[in-house]
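As a warm-up, study this chain.
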Amino acid sequence: MAIPHNHERQLSRVPTNHILTNSGCWLHDSQWIVYDVRSDPAGTVFDSPRIERIHVPTGRVEILHQAQRDAQVGVVTASPVDNRVVFIQGPEQPTRDWSYSATHRRGVVLDLHQKPLRCKPLDARQLVAPFTPGALRGGTHLHTFSGDGQWISCTYHDALLAQFDAAPGSPPHDPDQRNIAVSLPEPGPVLVPRTHPRNHSGTHWSVLVTRTVADPTPGSDEISRAYSDAWIGIDGYHRQDGTHQRRAIAYQGDVRTADGQTIAEAFMVDLPSDPRAMTRGGIELLAGTLTTRPAVPPAITSRRLTFTSQHRYPGIAGPRHWLRSSPDGRLIALLKRDLQGVVQLWTVSPAGGELRQLTCNPTPIASAFSWSPDGRWLAHVMDGSVCITDAATGQTHRLTTPQPACFAPSPLACVFAPNGQQIAYLRPQQQANGRVSNQIFVISTSRKAVARV
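Now compare it with the structure written out below.
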C-alpha cells in the first residue's frame, strides 16, 4: 500500500488539551477553527473554562469567551454564513442541587463582530408553572446552525421530569428522555419571570420537534430517545414528487424490535418554513405541564428512514457519531456494521428508499465524519489515519501516515473546511511533562497526495 505524502500540519502547540466539535468547528471564512479546552482527551468531562479560536494560516490563538462565576463552557459550533458561534454554558455559581448535568445546561450565542464580545442566552428556561411557550424547562446540548444560519437545533433534557424520575412516589409523569429541539429567532426574544433562581430569558423561541414514549411498542416506529441530529442539506431536500422541503432534520432514534432488542435507526422530521407554524400548539401544550414534556407543534411531521431489525447486525453502530447530510440534501450518511461485523459508511435518501452500503473496507470507520462542501467526499478516521471516501464509488483514500492506536487521530472530529481545501482533526501528542493531550491538526485535501486503501 502506498504511503501518502501529504504533510499534516500541527496548529496548536501548548500542553492544553483541545476538543473540536464533530461539525461546525471552522468559521465560515475557513481561516479560523473554534474549540474548547476540556481536560479529558475523550471530551467526557465538562470542565472547560473558556472558548478559543486558532488562526489556521499562522497558529495565532485568541480567547473568545472566558467563563465567569465558576461556569464551564464547551462544544462550540460556528455559523456557516457569519461570525456567530454557539456553545454550551453550564450553571453559573453552581450549587449542590444545581451543578452541571444534562438538565442544567443551556446554549449561548456569541457574535464575534460585536464589541465587546458578550454571550447571549439562546434558549429560555422556566422551572415554575405556569410555563411560557417558547421556553424550555431543562438543558440543551450540541447546538448546530441550519444551512442558512437562521435556526439552531440541539438535544434536550427536561429538569422537571428528571426530578420526578429520581423521587420515589412521584405522580405519574413523562420520563425525562433525550429529545431534539429547535430554536428560531422569530417571533423574537422569550421573556420568563424570575420565579426561580435558575429561570432565564432567551433570544430565540425554542420548541421540541421529536416525540418519545416511555415504553415503545415492539416492532413499531415509536422511539424512547432522539439524538445525534443533523440538518438535511444546506437548503433542505426535494421529495420524490419534486417538491422542495426547505428545513428538515435527520436524527437517530432508539426503537424496540419485535424481539425486544433496543437499536438505533435513522429518522427525520420536516419543519414548516413559516416560523409562525412553530409557535402554534395543538391539544397538548407547547410549553408542557408539570408532569408532561413540551409538545411538538402539529405542523411538524416525522418519518422513519431505516429498517434494519432483520439485518445480521441490526441498528446504527460504531463510534459515537451524528448523522450527516450531503450539502445538496440528497443523501444522509451513517455508520453501521456490514455482514462481517465491520463498521462501514452507509447512505439513505430523505426522500425515501433503501439503505445503501457505501464502503467495503477491511477495517472499520473509527470516528465521526463530515461531507466536503461539494458533496463528493466524506472525511473520517480509519486504521490510524485521516481518510476520505468517494461518495459515489465508496473508494477510501488515506491522507495521513498510519499512527499507533495511542497516537491515532481522535474519533471526536474529522471536519472539512467550508472551502473544502483542508480537514481539521485532533491527534494526541505527548508533552514534555509526560502527559498526553489532544492537539489540533489540519491536512490538505489535494488529490495529488492521497493513497488508496
